[in-house]
Amino acid sequence: MKAWLLGGVGAFALVAAGPAWAQQAEPAQDSAEQAASAEADQVEGDIVVTGIRRSLEQGLAVKRESTQFVDSIVATDVAKLPDTTIAESLQRVSGVQIRRALGVGTSVSIRGLRQNRTEVNGRTLVNPSGRGRNADAVADSDYGPLSLFPAELISRLDVIKLQGADRNEGSLSGTVDIITRKPLDGSGDRVIAMSASGVYSDQADRFGYDASALFSDSFADKTFGIVANITYSRKPITDQSFNSFTGYTPITAAFNTGANPRANDPNGDGVPGLYINDLRFQNLEETREQIGGSLGFQWRPAPNLEFYGDAVYSHLDTQRDRDWFSVPLSTSAADYVSYTMSPNEILSAGTIRQVAQTNAEALKVTSDTVSGAIGFKWSTDDGRFSVRPEFNYSDATLDSTQTYLRLTSVAKYNFAFDLNDGGVPSVSQPTGLDLTNPGLFRYSNIFDNFITTHARENAGRVDFSFKPQGGFLSSIDTGVRYAALNAERTSTFRQAAFAGTTPANTFLASAGNSSYYGVRDYNGLLGGDAGDFVTRYVAALPRNIDGLACEAIASAAACGARVVDPLQSFSVTEKTMAAYAKANFTTDLGAMPLSGNIGVRYSDIERVARGSVKRASGLVDPLLSKSRFVDWLPSAALKLELTDRLLLRAGAAKVLGLPDTIDLSPNLTLNRLTPYNGSAGNPELQPIRADQVDASLEWYFAPGAALTVGAFYKDVKTFIVRRAAYEVPPGEVAPDPLGQGFLITRPYNADGGKVKGVEVLFQTPFYFLPAPFDGFGLVANLSYIDSTTALTDRRGAALPLEGLSKLNYNLVGYFEKDGFGARVAYNYRDKYFDSVGAGATAIFFAPNRTIDASIRYEFAKFTIYADATNLTDEVQQKYTETPEATSLYAMQGRRFSAGVNFKF
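RE: above sequence
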């Protein structure tokens, strides 16, 4: 029976017969998709189930048949949702919470924990920085695998929440496994599919487009098959925001005066108040051009022998233009005409006599990611013994070129500001001040930054399986794996700062090159009615200078030679040797089938980090850090089928999470502009170890329908947190008048804590309703997760786990009948603690709500569709300690797309 799996996002279409085109991570899941396909093909006699309902049934069958704790999204389900990235599709899984950058889902937390693995067909998928977060040079666009990879290339997404002994170490709370299509896992019939769509961003008022094509066929009596898929997209990204780069810091004693000796601490509790370092109003426009592809083959010359290989590829080109007007605040009382401190001791309003700053950045990002594997599977004729060797390779690079120029007014002016109690902060332009006049400004800061990050992993593994005769053991699995991961960054930072008002540094229309500057007009910024701020000002045009700002504006001598900065370049190498043994069993407890596994994994990781450190004299010495970590990771899982519809699942494991590679870097990056901050890694970070227990009760009360309730508990031995503190590094001088130094953020191993939670899934088609209402269906999931940690804020209050929202839920309603399909998806994520800021301040993201929708109609050979995301134009907000202390208020607008799928 053929079923059409339809594309969405970039929109692909394919034909598959029987199960979805996916290679399962464990044998138990092979039968899961076969059961899903059979169940989906026939419900209530001869009623054929396709499209959305079919994909939901298949995903539910994977969950039901697996011994492990697994949630799956099958291809049509990914495509039917109006999701632009894999991360956005994963937010539909209970317990998965996504992080957005510039309105696009980029990374996920699983059960509140970020240190997890991303894999393709069970193998590592590295990002340009190695593992975890990507290069901090483009932190506001985290170009990680879950945003780089086109969703069109996917057959299924698995989220494995309890690691078995055969799963690779490195997942503290779960593994995201991206399963690509395999040509012989369906019927093997020829498939040709193409699609195209247009994309519109309403905030930017710009259009984009995407297209894809797929070919699959089998030969030699369906013993050899190939599949190829290619995608292309060019899409606009827009962001309008109030955005303070450094955020809030404690007010120093310089704020005190003789008339008010405790102005920085009005309530006298010994904890100073906070002020925001700068007020920025930003407009960002970005164009992302992306090419993706996959290629795979299978050859089965005999029933007991299969050779296979597959590769996936993603290429990204980004062009970004970002402009912002800013007014720096101060901790010196002499700079203020007047001010107001809120009851929460936040410097919430006032008038400051300060310079005006206009800022412009041109950023180019190019990234390439490839992952491939080749191997074979062989078994004896009786199927009792099998072996599967595989070699895989993953490689990712990212090159970024940043040209940045700041213009600073020669004179100071009185700017009135107001944080507006959690709304959009405002800055009032002084009456009569014309900020579009270039004669008021001088060049003050110039960046020409070039960063290359590159990571690759070579890995090989051999897995064995033996099936004993008789007894309750169904199989004994063993295997070994070796992997070598290397990540490196090369940085060339050319930064110049100019002081004074000499003619050579004064930005006059008569003396400057007029092609290097222009007037910005962002009337309507942030909706046009969100606050009072400057929207017309003169700013540089770094795109016209193209990475040569120092030579164009100043001189090569002023900026220094273009050489690699050793303090901001590094390499991290990890070599992992692992082995495992796992016993799978099946038996009966009376009339109740019992299955499961018990196993142990041995992991030996050697880490070498190389960088540089500066002496007080200014000379640079090499830095070398070596570490080794050996762990035994036992695990067990049980599944008891109480009835043919009700099952009980339980499991326990010791799990190992690994720090993000970028956090292990022995580098120091300094920003020599106000507000003088920086970042540094920590090559001595320890792995994150945890003991985990899971249990769930699952009721599959009808075809494609289920109510499941799960609970979990994790005892985490250490967390990784980032703290900011003022430092004057060796060989540097304090750049600020108060001598505080640079506000440098570093990761640390903090004391551990507990994480516990409940996950609920309810899914059902309304097949019991009379026509036409039997086409409706509902998917709802909810997770409630709590944590206790030893981390506290500057007032001693306990803080939760970084990145954890206590409450997260999704509601998806759909209708599908007679070729017509529609879906509306609502996602809610509660507030979450993001990081520790300057002076041990706690930084939070506010709750976020999104509504996405899609509609489509299927004809005989093609489908027309329309998708929409962020229909309510949700705002992204971040604050420090209290919601009135806004540090980010961002709008990315709505996205709409419409297109057509052809299938042959």
